[in-house]
Amino acid sequence: MPYAHNEDLPPGVRSHLPPHAQSIFRGAFNGAWHAHADEPAREALCHRIAWAAVKRHYRKQGDHWVPIDPGWEP
């Protein structure tokens, strides 16, 4: 189901991603949720799409997710 706020995201997403990346995840998930209403594995698909959106802007460095462009600040 779509997420209204970052606080509604799954704990694994909230505890690993910085706030801006959480917003990217939430927006991509919600958009995918509406776009793929007829998919049988809708939720899993939406999670994959959301993580792909995050990975376009952030990369994992050690245990932290950092912006791909280190000069950019959210």
Write the layout of secondary structure elements.
Blueprint (H helix, E strand, L loop, with lengths): L10 H6 L2 H17 L6 H16 E4 L2 E4 L7
Antiparallel strand pairs: 1-2
Helix pairs in contact: 2-3
Protein model, in words:
Helices cover 53% and strands 11% of the residues. It contains three helices and two strands, in the order αααββ. A two-stranded antiparallel sheet has the order 1-2. A hairpin with a 2-residue loop joins strand 1 and strand 2. The mean pLDDT is 93.
Give the low-pLDDT segments.
none
Question: Which outline best applies?
Answer: elongated
Strand content bin: 5-15%
Tally the helices: what do you get?
3
Question: What's the main sheet like?
Answer: 2 strands, antiparallel
Please trace the helix and strand order, writing H or E for each element.
HHHEE
Read across the widest sheet, the strand sequence of neighbours is: 1-2
- The count of strands amounts to 2
Helical percentage: 40-55%
Residue-averaged pLDDT: 93
**SS content category:** mainly alpha
**Distance between the amino and carboxyl termini:** 26 Å
